[in-house]
User: Which sequence fits this backbone?
């Protein structure tokens, strides 16, 4: 795979090639563009306005950052009443036109998210340069601060954040939500939008960013958040578990056994009977023993114990997520969408009362967990007691 530095240079070259073969009406010289890699939107101190932060590449500093000490990016900040006129105002700051097609992330500050984001999304839907595949996140604090936290490895903070979203998602520690998915949920009357929460870790003089929790929206306003356990419960339900670790107590009660999730799937099954609505969430999981820190040998007869314990862990995570979502009255799972697909006629009446139905909805959770193989050995590295 290409290194991040090479990837950025590759992007710039591709932009230059694309522009050179475009029609004359859309021809742009590379040195007239400010290539945007990430954007943050915060609530401004002035009533009714937003503060927009655009992170653009400084091509000349990509190779020289270590030698000159200069940042390889520039965070341009501007205050305005809408995203559209604020972005257009960047021209007066940078003398270059903001080029949006390589943007990686869109971050909303928490205060703005709680106030509502609907009025700030119209530009991204209409603008032909916007990538609807950008990752949407909510900052615990200000988005501008997140975009200014440098990485030890990546030169561009927005790239680092995009990489974190992928890494956390690959291990099922966080949700990954594109702008397209966020908008589709927002346009639904019942399907609540979600986004990962990004936070700053202050370790002495060094700062780093990390993902923890999920922002839950009711229509366009953030109404609460899921913690780490509830977030994975959400991932189980919406069939977005890619990998991860399940930790259970060892059979002898001394230490733990860790299982790597190698395969998972889920299905939401709605049922309407005698005017009573219920749902069943069926989850299948398959995993390997990754490690153990208990002194006892793991025997083949322990397989059933392992599978039952894994079922319990998964079910508890899902129950925690459903309980929090019902508390917030936000259908983050798409239960309403599932009912609509199976019962389109009945849904017309249910949709209008979904805010009353969802908090009381009965959900059955059925989990099938398997141990595929035990690995190299059933014996622990730690020797047993004599």
Assistant:
């Amino acid at each position: 795979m290409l290194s991040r530095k090479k990837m950025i240079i590759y992007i710039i070259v591709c932009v230059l090639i694309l522009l050179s073969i475009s029609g004359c009406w859309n021809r742009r010289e590379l040195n007239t563009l400010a290539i945007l890699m990430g954007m943050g939107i915060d609530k401004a101190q002035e009533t009714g306005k937003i503060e927009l932060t655009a992170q653009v590449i400084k091509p000349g500093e990509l190779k020289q950052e270590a030698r000159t000490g200069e940042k390889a990016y520039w965070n341009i900040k501007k205050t305005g009443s809408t995203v559209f006129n604020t972005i257009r105002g960047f021209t007066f700051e940078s003398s270059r036109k903001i080029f949006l097609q390589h943007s990686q992330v869109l971050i909303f500050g928490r205060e703005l998210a709680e106030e509502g984001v609907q009025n700030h999304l119209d530009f991204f839907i209409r603008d032909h340069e916007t990538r609807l595949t950008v990752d949407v996140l909510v900052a615990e604090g200000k988005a501008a601060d997140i975009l200014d936290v440098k990485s030890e490895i990546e030169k561009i903070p927005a790239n680092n954040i995009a990489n974190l979203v992928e890494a956390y998602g690959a291990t099922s520690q966080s949700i990954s939500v594109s702008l397209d998915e966020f908008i589709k949920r927002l346009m639904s009357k019942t399907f609540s939008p979600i986004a990962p929460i990004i936070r700053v870790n202050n370790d002495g003089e060094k700062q780093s960013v990390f993902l923890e929790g999920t922002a839950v929206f009711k229509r366009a306003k953030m109404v609460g958040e899921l913690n780490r356990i509830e977030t994975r419960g959400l991932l189980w339900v919406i069939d977005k578990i890619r990998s991860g670790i399940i930790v259970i107590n060892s059979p002898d009660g001394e230490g733990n056994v860790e299982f790597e999730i190698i395969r998972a799937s889920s299905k939401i099954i709605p049922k309407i009977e005698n005017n009573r609505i219920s749902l069943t969430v069926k989850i299948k999981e398959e995993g390997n023993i990754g490690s153990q820190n208990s002194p006892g040998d793991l025997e083949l007869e322990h397989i059933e114990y392992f599978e039952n314990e894994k079922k319990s862990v998964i079910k508890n995570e899902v129950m925690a997520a459903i309980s929090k979502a019902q508390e917030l009255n936000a259908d983050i799972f798409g239960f309403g969408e599932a009912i609509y697909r199976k019962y389109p006629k009945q849904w017309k009446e249910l949709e209008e009362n979904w805010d009353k139905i969802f908090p009381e909805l009965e959900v059955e959770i059925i989990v099938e967990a398997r141990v595929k193989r035990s690995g190299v050995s059933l014996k622990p590295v730690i020797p047993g007691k004599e």
